[in-house]
Amino acid sequence: MTSGRSGEELRFVNHVRSDGRRDVFDFCVSWSQRSGIPYGRSHYLYILRSYLHRSFLDFTPNLALCEKHNVLTQSDFFTKKYNSKSLGLLVAVIGVLSMIPYIVLQLKGFQIIVSEASYGLIPPTVAVWIGMLCVTVFVYVSGIHGSAWTAVLKDILILVVIVFLGIYLPIHYFGGVQPMFETLEATKPGFLLLPDEGLSISWYISLCLTIALGQYMWPHCFGASLSSQNESALRKNSAILPLYQIILVFILFIGFTAVLQIPNLQGGDTDLALFKIAKDAFPPWIVGVVGAAGMLAALVPCSMLILTAATILSKNIYKAVKPDTSNEQLAKLTRIFVPIVSLVSLIFTFYGGNTMIALLTMAYSFVLQLFPPLVFSLLKRNPVSKAGASAGMILGVVLVAYFTLAEATMATLLPKAPHFIQDIDIGIVAITFNLIVTLAVSAFTRKDQQTIQEEEPVKRIITS
Amino acid sequence: MKKIIVLLSVIPAIGSLSVVNRVEPYIFGLPFIIFWATAWLILTSICLYISSVICDRQEENK
């Protein structure tokens, strides 16, 4: 379930820092809302991921302990590790705030797919309502276990559709993959490469770092890891994930074909690139299959996000405020929160406009701020105190919010600095300050998180 | 040993993009930079798989 998510964020960062290349990236998102990495720049993601996996290798032996201590969500994990309910609450709030733009994004993708695949028959507004109702019902009916086989079905359908399009389209228009790339290089020289400034190498590497580290900090991905069968299975799964991303090569083939074949797409129209080229090359029924795959690709992760957000809202936020809530009440509350979260996302989908894209970039940098306290908590002797972790996270989140709202970048902050510094992603800047403050405050405060309290295991709320 | 491995894994992350940031030569029909990316996808999977096998063995020995 966690695979392929990273590309999406990369895509949206590209939206925000648009340049000549955005049509490729934009194209990809419209496809399925999940895997639009501009491939030439993505590989570091996977190298850097291996660091993360290192930390997960150290982390995994705790799974049995997590089960014992009733750790189901990310917030639970922080609460236990730092023995602090307020820290858990902070993590929960950051998590929910970050997830809303993410859900909105999926709904927006659904909206595009439905209205395009129906050849405009279903208006976008109706499409979003349908999507939102589908997701809500899906969450009620299936819960967390039911999504597993749907996810498999979705993956197979997408794999078949993308590989087919990725191979067929370049052959159809250019006679092969290499001729397609050669045409691209001839028409738009340098398009395939990273430029010297702007979206440069340092931009690329810092953004990969943001994504590689931030990806697992998303509450729904984190929760999925916690619910793994055992440590070994989690590790094997992590090893397979990069292979899964090979699908992106084919997405790039489609994207580059669209760049050449349907040039001059502007603004929001770039999101329609996939359907424009599919309609150009295929009869309606194939467009329908493409649309179906895309819809599943948007809805399945969406249900996971909504379920996680609702669980965190009841278990980690409501219960933190009212500790005497019983488990039955919590289960009920979770069910009530599901449609509320959906509705809030729906409202943002209608009225948020394109600011949601900026918000998602911000959200990605938000969850990244949870990374330092997590890694430190995995060490045998955690050098970080709960005060230090809180101070660092709050500073990180505030910095990210400030940079986003003031539309500042490293370039506006340091106009005289060399380009490789100006191009660094803001998430990395914030996490650096976060780290410094975390360690500095920890040096002066008491560390008492080693004492983990026993708690009666209770039934898993989300599965009931 | 562990430290050496960590250091080694930093090298491609820092140095190589400046070297591989080129279109020629085409390999398997892919521009070099895209071929490089694809190759690393597969290599990363292999590396992670090896490390997970090693980890499993270490746990069994405990």
If you had to describe this structure to a student in words, what would you say it looks like?
The complex is a heterodimer of chains A (about 475) and B (about 60). With about 475 residues, chain A is an all-alpha fold. Chain A has one domain (about 5-355): Up-down Bundle (Sodium/glucose cotransporter), CATH 1.20.1730. Chain A is about 75% helix and about 0% strand. In chain A, helix 16 runs parallel beside helix 21 (about 425-445). Chain A is globular and about 65 Å long. Chain A starts with 5 loop residues before the first helix and ends in a 20-residue tail after the last helix. Chain B is mostly helical and about 60 residues long. Chain B has a domain at about 35-60. Chain B has helices spanning about 1-20, 30-60. The longest helix of chain B has 30 residues, at about 30-60. The model of chain B has no long low-confidence stretch (mean pLDDT about 70). Classes of the chains: A mainly alpha (about 475), B mainly alpha (about 60). The interface between A and B is large, with 42 and 33 residues.
